[in-house]
Design goal:
This protein is of the alpha+beta class. It has helices spanning 118-121, 314-325, 354-357, 369-381, 387-398, 405-418, and strands spanning 27-33, 42-50, 68-70, 77-78, 80-82, 87-95, 101-107, 126-130, 139-140, 150-152, 158-162, 167-172, 178-179, 193-201, 209-215, 220-225, 230-236, 242-248, 255-262, 265-270, 273-279, 290-292, 299-308, 331-333, 338-339.
């Protein structure tokens, strides 16, 4: 260490020059999630990233197999799952409420192999996640793992219909249903759990009750009461009572319905908003199969079913809805890609060292770091440096990351462009 240097900690929320994930990837874009729609910090939170209008496929492989996602440091991988080549589920380490959350998507590697990890995307207490976008092979797969897939019981469910996200299934108003009939497993405990789904009910619903979600023994359900025009959330408790919350719904449009049970309460949400809660004891029996509309005839579409073995918070449920509904400015993808040289495509960072000469320095190893950092920062940012900023840059010089004035000057310019 150089004598007379003050060793200070690196700023924890570093937004300066980030690393590059891998030189084999030619491009990346920054993705930002708006904290305005997040009520509290949410850990291991899956978000939807839609790339259809982002320009990513100007350079990415057609099937999306070269897509990689990283933390805001540009290096640390985070898992993703492709529902389609443009609809991607990415698990954030944390979605922040008080500051925007940023990640990167890398692309442009023609030699890359597919590296999805759906199990890790959904490893935060999800027991089942169904995108309902499979080909009409009679099986709708569970993204959480190789179990609890939904089978097409009657063979008449209409697959590959336009959904809320990519594709969905359409229930044809007959005795068809989807169900995990060959799996006797516990999706939900008797005391806690969360079920959610998007649905779009046809106005031509012919029967009094159409089930969107139900376990085989009718203990847990989200259903339509077409006589009253209401959506029903029900839990059949161990005392033999159906605890119910109801709310009106609008036909021929997509809605997000959430059933939540925990702490002796049944709660319901519609399109991210709470419908209230009622006292409700342990579910009578959840060690049973479940399906969509098993014997109660639904006419309409269903998409994106999720089951968790935990009672999700209201903030979690609202953020899930905002992420999936595509109805708010929740996600922003940078318009111009960055290239492997660390700058935005079409932009350059100056290599002119004439400004450095004004500091009295040279292109050799920094000799008087404090004065050089102060002056260079003032040239780049046209203001005085703060103590935290000086601490950050001095540490980079001490660590040998930016040992010359041109390198230090270029890094400061890059940070200014990013901010």
């Amino acid at each position: 260490m150089l004598a007379g240097w003050l060793v200070l900690p690196v700023h924890a929320a570093d937004e300066a020059e980030r690393g590059w994930y891998d030189d084999a990837w030619s491009y990346r874009k920054k993705i930002t999630f708006n904290s305005e729609f997040v009520g509290s910090d949410l850990g291991k939170f899956p978000v939807l990233v839609q790339l259809d209008d982002a320009g990513v496929y100007d350079h990415a492989k057609e099937d999306g197999s070269d897509l990689r996602f990283t933390e805001s440091d540009g290096v640390t991988r985070i898992p993703h799952e492709l529902e389609s080549n443009t609809d991607v589920w990415v698990r954030l380490t944390k979605l922040y409420a008080n500051t925007d959350t940023s990640i990167y998507v890398y692309y442009g590697n023609p030699d890359a192999d597919d590296d999805q990890d759906s199990g890790s995307v959904w490893n935060n207490r999800y027991t089942a996640v169904y995108h309902l976008n499979q080909d009409p092979d009679g099986v709708n797969r569970n993204s959480v793992g190789d179990r609890l897939h939904l089978d097409d019981n009657q063979g008449a469910v209409r697959h590959n219909r336009p959904g809320k996200i990519d594709q969905a299934v359409h229930m044809p108003n007959d005795n068809s249903w989807l169900g995990a009939t060959d799996h006797r497993d516990r999706f939900l405990s008797q005391s806690t759990g969360t079920v959610s789904a998007f649905f779009n009910a046809d106005s031509t619903q012919q029967y009094t009750t159409g089930r969107i979600f139900i376990d085989w023994q009718s203990r847990v359900s989200i259903s339509l009461d077409t006589n009253a025009g209401n959506l029903l959330f029900q839990n059949y408790d161990a005392d033999g009572a159906y605890d119910t919350i109801s709310a009106p719904y609008e036909a021929n449009r997509w809605h997000h319905a959430v059933w939540r049970h925990g702490d002796g309460q049944l709660a319901a949400y519609l399109d991210g908003a709470s419908l209230g809660q009622v006292a409700s004891g342990n579910t009578d029996d959840t060690n049973a199969d479940f399906g969509i509309a098993p014997g109660w005839l639904l006419h309409g579409q269903v998409d994106e079913i999720r089951v968790s073995d935990v009672a999700r918070s209201g903030d979690w449920i609202k953020a899930e809805y905002i992420s999936q509904c595509q109805c708010e400015d929740f996600v922003t993808i940078s318009s111009e890609p960055e290239t492997g040289d660390g700058v935005a495509a079409g932009e350059t960072i100056s290599t002119d060292t004439s400004a450095i000469a004004a500091t009295g320095g040279t292109t050799q190893t920094v000799a008087s770091p404090l004065e050089s950092i102060n002056n260079l920062f003032r040239i780049v940012n046209e203001r005085e440096i703060t103590f935290t900023e000086w601490s950050y840059w001095s540490q980079r010089v001490i660590a040998g990351e930016k040992p010359t004035l041109p390198e230090l000057f270029g890094a400061m310019q890059y940070q200014a462009l990013e901010n």
